[in-house]
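Folding follows sequence. Below is one example:
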Amino acid sequence: MNLTGPMHHIALEAGSARESDPLQVVRPSFSRRGLHLSARHLPISKSSELRNAKILHIISSALNVLSREGHARLSMRSVATEAQLSLSTLQHYFESKEKLLMETVRVFAYSFMDRYKAFSLQKELTAREALDHVLQEIIDEATHKEIAGILIEIWALGVHDQAIGELLTELYGEYRRLLAKLFMDLDIGLSPKAADDLASLLAMQSEGLVMMAFYGGILHPLPESLSYQFKTMWTILARQMVTDAPIPG
């Protein structure tokens, strides 16, 4: 898998480095729609544009190594080689493997969450349409074998590295809150607890899709009929949690 293109080059999207834009993103070329690496927590200014682009280039290279070789074989030297940088240049940006991995996990997670959040902010979309878009994104990404492989490696890192485990707990909390807001925005009378329960269930199901994509040979992209059933199921569940009525057969 090549996240950064044949020449290992990452360019910021046109206009994305402007101060008026709340996100700085780059578009690696490995997913069906293109994964945007988010740098929203990095400084955004004219002076930081090149530095941020370099950091995202390094992180994309780390994701390449993580996907291809696994977390056990990822090293500062292997990432430097992948990024076509000297080891000393890499260490100028990340002084240790631990800091590189922490930032890689953070940026990778925000790459999805920022896009999901953007749908809820699009005024031309209804709440149901925004939820449908997010559900489709979750399906596409969870069933993408290369993304699934990276997620499994990150989960393994979280088991063995306390700092990354704590970061994942923080990120999963933010992810569930984002999903819960999407359910609340439907304005169908869900209680905050019901929306949080739905968000937790959806997060768990998406993890199941990841495992099926990686080990079970699930198709990518998922057939349209299955995607439709997946999205419809969550709308039915949301309404059932409001009315406490039986889920229709």
About this structure: The first helix runs from residue 49 to 69. The CA atoms of residues 12 and 53 lie 7 Å apart.
